[in-house]
Every structure is written in structure tokens, then in C-alpha cells.
Amino acid sequence: LQETVQLGDGWNRTTFAKSVPMSTYLVCFAVHQFESVLRMSASGKPLRVYAQPLQIHTAEYAANVTKIIFDFFEEYFNLNYSLPKLDKIAIPDFGTGAMENWGLITYRETNLLYDPKESATSNKQRVAAVIAHELVHQWFGNIVTMDWWDDLWLNEGFASYFEFLGVNAAEPDWKMLEQVLIDDVLPVMKDDSLLSSHPIVVDVSSPAEITSVFDGISYSKGASILRMLQDWITPELFQKGCQAYLKKYHFENAKTQQFWEALEAASNKPVREVMDTWTRQMGYPVLEMGNNSVFTQKRFLLDPSANASHPPSDLGYKWNIPVKWKLGNSANYTLYNTSDSAGITIAPSPNTFVNINPDHIGFYRVNYDSQNWNELSTLLVSNHTDFSPADRAGILDDAFSLARPGLVNYTVPLDLTKYLKNETDYLPWHRVISSVTYLANMLEDDTNLYPQFQEYFRYLVKPIVDQLHWNDSGDHLQRLLRASVLDFACSMDDKESLNNASQLFEQWLQGETGKNIQILFLYFSIPANLRLLVYRYGMENSGNEASWNYMFQKYQETSLAQEKEKLLYGLASVKNVTLLDRYLKYIYNTSLIKSQDVFTVLRYISYNTYGKTMAWDWIRLNWQYLVDRFTINDRNLGRIVTITQTFNTELQLWQMENFFEKYPNAGAGELPRSQSIEQVKSNIEWLKANKEEIRIWLEA
């Protein structure tokens, strides 16, 4: 801001300083009456966080973390931030998560405002991660901008990877460099094993195509291959290459190849030749162990009947793989070239397990032979801490994923789970819960099999539940672990856990009603990290109209967006069709449910067994309304069809195909539609192929 001149008649003329060379998509201004919190960077730049006056006390954490991470990136990139100031602002109704506008970063309130008394540990981590992500963009994206949207990953993949380095600098106890595995790497490996995936670098021209590449492939796969690359060429040389790239293309546009050149110059390794195979074709390989410790690669697909050479790729679905492996404590790299048609040999040594792809550092899966899988099961049971938490998460995820298309029998992952009664770490639990949730979604309609299934997993999770209890103590990772395993125990119908949730729920409901003199000062508050569980499972087990209305009133009263979101999930968990129908009608009214939360509410309702078909029916009946309200190119609208991905009957598939035929213009929903159809077809086949095997294993 240079000057404001009063012209009389209530008019002012404001003149702004000339901007640096800047892409138009990064320009932003805000007109508001917000308050702000200020920190100064080490280099003397003012860093402000703006929020509504009522909420300004919740901006302190963001302000503190911004300063630490900003200072870290100025140093890491060896390049000063380009503008005289950096502001952040929390927007009350904001359609995406955040936007890295140069010097004025906009945020959804849940991603910026944190209340240490009322917010959960996961909310804190989310705020730190989004702040770090947007700060990375002030270099990658803003100072150097991709040449065209086909290279979007140069913005988003980088921000998604470096956000973990940034948060790690601010919160070293959170083990963020390991958490990237459960936040990005393993989740996107599922998406990328479908035929309906796409390469990281993909031709785009229309607005619908451009908006739809803002997806897991650009963000999470981009982050994952950078993680693999950084480890292979070493973190020091990776940093050096990034610095050179930012310096060379300062205030300019760049393409993927130019980034590879910078890293090649820094590392003297064939970076471009290796990385092209990961960015210019979709998917990834599985390394299969054959005789004499020979490993060969083939494309990994979730559907056993899928055509592995489809859609056609110039690179033939062969990858140049930097294969990392460990014997005892020594780690080595072997580069598996596409030209090595016979595969690579990784010689074992007697009595030592060869750990291929430790910490799941590479973007591929490993399928051992049956002898080695058995050995792994035994090793995990006898001493699981011989493997790192990231190893254990990766091994479990590979095993469950390999069983989906039948590359291994389900006995392999299920045998591996036996050791979980000794598991006390967040990473493996978080990941195995995700894998088991797929099985649960597929099997829950089978009234004979599903109770046996639940019983087995209740038995595995009981020790850790008993150890952690229904309180809110421990360090950051312990609190995240508690939230995960208590949720899992409840979903596996553990009576004790469900009773605890209901009891806390009842106390919460009475918090306001029992106001006599004695307890006036004892207003009951649920510990922040248990709230979501209590709202969801309390409402599911004992929710009725009175408690639903009380919760909706609480939703309207709280000013903290993170708390509102938890209450929205609670409201969606009620097992009552009339109340769910009322909730769906609230969507039409923006004073009851903000536009930013419409798709969140629909998704939450779809997680409810009663709401699963209701949400989908509502979307189909109200499709034209949604298109008129949000536009066909809205990516959140495009993605809402993915709530169908747990469907597993021919009738449900027919309904989907019928609906997509009726509304052929998919806009931003083209990929989500084909992913959902592919997923449901695969679910139907999966049940036919695997249900019996799982039943036999459980009965044994």
C-alpha cells in the first residue's frame, strides 16, 4: 500500500506499490474489518494473520508456526521471500482448503484457526501442514511458476512434499517425515493402481480438465516421487538442486524437464531418465521375488482382470526404479533399469531378512515369495521393533494391497496382523485400519461373517485400547493413535468402547440441563481429542430427536470452525431416517449450512449405514440444483460421486451407470466418475473371489 488520498464525497483513492512479475492467478485483495496478529521474520518481514475479531485468539498458533516455517524456507531455499510483507486471512466460507496468493494467503477457517482448549491434535497438525504447504508456494509456484497447467505438479507436488519438512522444523516431535507415508504415499498408491488414474504430467486445455488435475496424483504422487528422489540422490544434493532451479528461473516459468536438469547437474545421476518413467506414465510397479532372489517388475493394478498395457504408454509401463534395500543396519541402492529385462538380484545373507524398500521410500510395492512372507510374520510376532514404524506400515499396506488382485492370498496379510496385539505405534495402526476398513465395507452386509470379522479385530485392538484409555493424555503421536484405535474399536462393535462413548455423550447432553447451584461451575466438557468419537458414536448409539436438536444448537452456537465440523459429523451419525432427511433439507439453506460444508455433510451422511443410499439418492434427485448452485466445473461437486466407491452390488452399479448416462456432461467429475465405476465393478468381483477365503481363515 503506497498511499490513500481522500477525494471528498466519501471517496478515497488508494495507490498500491508496483508488484513483482506475477502470474494473474496469484493476485488477491481482501476488503474486511478483521483483526490481526503480528510476528516478524528473522529477515525483518512482517507476517500477519487476520481473522474475525471474535476468533482472533485462535490465530496465535498460526502466527507462531508461520514465523518458524517462513524462516526455515528462506534458509533452506537460500532465497529471500520476494515481497515486503506476508499476510494470511481466514475466510468464513471458503470453497477450497487454502490459496497461496502472493503476499495474501487465503484459508478456510479450519485450516488456520486453532484453539488449544477446544481443538483436537489432528486439527493442530492440519493447520501446521496447510500453513507450511502455502508457504512453500511462495517459492515453488510464485517465484518460479509452472509454464502451463500440465506441469501443475511442479507447484503442488513440491508444496505437498516440502510441507512435511516445514512442519518438521516447527514441530520436530511429530515425526512428519514418517507421516508423509500415511498422509500421501500409501493413500495415493490406491488411486494410482486403477486404470482410471492419469500420469503426473498430463495434457490439459479446458477449465474442466485443468481443475480436475488438482487431485491426489498431482499433490500426493508428486510428493511421493520427490521423497523417493530426495533419498536416492541424498537430501544435501536435492536441496542444492532446488536452490539452483529457483535461482535460474527466478520470476520466470519452468517445465518439469528444467527441474530434472537442475537436479542432474547437482547430483550427477541420471535424474531425468529415471524420473520420466514416473511422471510421464500412470501407475507404478510391484517388484516380485522369484527364484534365487531375483526381483522382476510389473505394473501393479487392483483389478486382476485389468489390461496391464492399457491405456497405451510410450514407456510401456516399465520404470527405472531406484531400489533401496537393507541387510541388518546397512542400506544400499540398486538402480533397476528398464533395460534389465531379466530383473535384478539382491543376494540374501544367511539368517538375515533382506528388507526391500525400507520405510516404503520408493513408490512401488514388494511381493516376497511365500517363504519370506512367512518369515516376516514370524519376525513381527517375535520382535516387531526390528522394523521401523514406517516399515511396518508399508509392509502391512503392501500385503493387503497385493491381496486385492490376488497376487497373494488373503492369508498373507491376515497372518501379518497377528502381531498387532503388541503394536503401539501410530503409523502401522493408522494404515492397517485403512486396509481393514475396505474389508469391513465389503463384508458388513454378511450377517454371519461380519460378526466373526469384528470379533477378531476387537481382540487385536483391545490391548492398545486398554493401555491408552478414554482420556486425553500423552504426546502428539499418542493422542493421534488414541483417536484412531478408539474409533476402530467402536467401529468393530467393542461394547466397552461404545459404552464409554455413550456415557460421555450423556454427560455432555446434561451439561446445560442440570444447572442447579452446585454444578453451575462444573459445566461438562469432553476432552478435545475424544469429541469427534463421542459425537459420532454417542449419536449413533443413543441419538434421538432431542439430542440431535441439542447438537444442532451447539453447532450454531460455536464460533470455532473445527468444532463445527466435528458436530456436523455427529449430526450425520444418527440412525434415524427422519432426522437424516431433515439434515439433507438444511443443505438448501446457507444460513444453516455454509456452501463450503455442503459436500462435507453429504460425505458424512454417506458414512452412516442408514445414510449410505440416502445421500446418493439425494445427490441424484438434486443433481441439477447442485450444478446450478456450484457449476459443473466445481471439483468438489465433481468428486462427490466418489461416495459410491463402497458399493458392491450389480443393482448399485446399474444405478450409477444409469445416472451418469442421464447427465453425460461430467465437467470436473469425469475422472471421479470413471474411478467410481471401476472401483464398484472391482468390488463386485472382489466379493466373489475372496469372501470364502476370508471366512475360512477367520474360522480357523
Tell me what the structure shows.
It is a single chain. The protein is of the alpha/beta class. About 50% of the residues lie in helices and about 10% in strands. The chain has a domain at about 455-700: Zincin-like fold, CATH 1.25.50. The strands form five sheets. It has a five-stranded mixed β-sheet with strand order 3-4-5-7-6, with helices on one face. The chain has a four-stranded mixed β-sheet with strand order 14-11-10-16. A hairpin with a 2-residue loop joins strand 12 and strand 13 (about 330-335). Helix 11 (about 390-405) packs parallel to helix 13 (about 425-445). It is globular and about 85 Å long. Residues about 515-520 have low confidence and may be disordered.
Q: Any idea of the CATH topology of the domain at 457-699?
A: Zincin-like fold
Radius of gyration: 26 Å
Q: What's the arrangement of strands in the largest beta sheet?
A: 3-4-5-7-6
Mean pLDDT: 96
**Oligomeric state of the chains?**
single chain
Catalytic activity: Release of N-terminal glutamate (and to a lesser extent aspartate) from a peptide
Subunit structure: Homodimer; disulfide-linked.
Membrane topology: Single-pass type II membrane protein
Active site: 134 (proton acceptor)
Concise summary:
The chain has 26 helices and 16 strands.
